[in-house]
Amino acid sequence: MSLTAGDDDEGQTDIPTESPDESITDLLALRQIMAQLPDGDRALLELRYFRGLTQTKTAQALGMTQVQVSRREKKLLAQMREELLS
User: DSSP secondary-structure letter at 51?
Assistant: First the structure.
């Protein structure tokens, strides 16, 4: 049995991977959206997602209640998701 040019790929599976360019583009888009947010909203997201604070700790830092942080965070994420997908 002889091997032809395409035979040596049998049994291998291509695994899709995300292009590094896509990650960079996503990061730049996120930074652009974050830069357009009012200071308080940007601070809320930075504390929650970049510093890893809980909603309660974020609320204390911003002089809000945990419920206010939760509602504002949910609204901001929905708005940002819509902007990123459009």
Answer: S
The DSSP secondary structure of 3-33, one letter per residue, reads --TTGGGTT--------HHHHHHHHHHHHHH
Give dist(CA 27, CA 52) in Å, integer: 18
What would the pLDDT profile of 38-77 be if each residue is shown by its tens digit? Answer: 999 999 999 999 999 999 999 999 999 999 999 999 999 9
d(CA 55, CA 53): 7
Q: How far apart are CA 24 and CA 66, in angstroms?
A: 33
Determine the average pLDDT of the residues in 8-35. 77
Q: Are 30 and 61 in contact (CB under 8 A)?
A: no
Distance of CA 63 to the CA centre of its chain: 26
Q: What's the token pair of residue 66? A: 């945990």
DSSP letter string over 34-45? HHHS-HHHHHHH
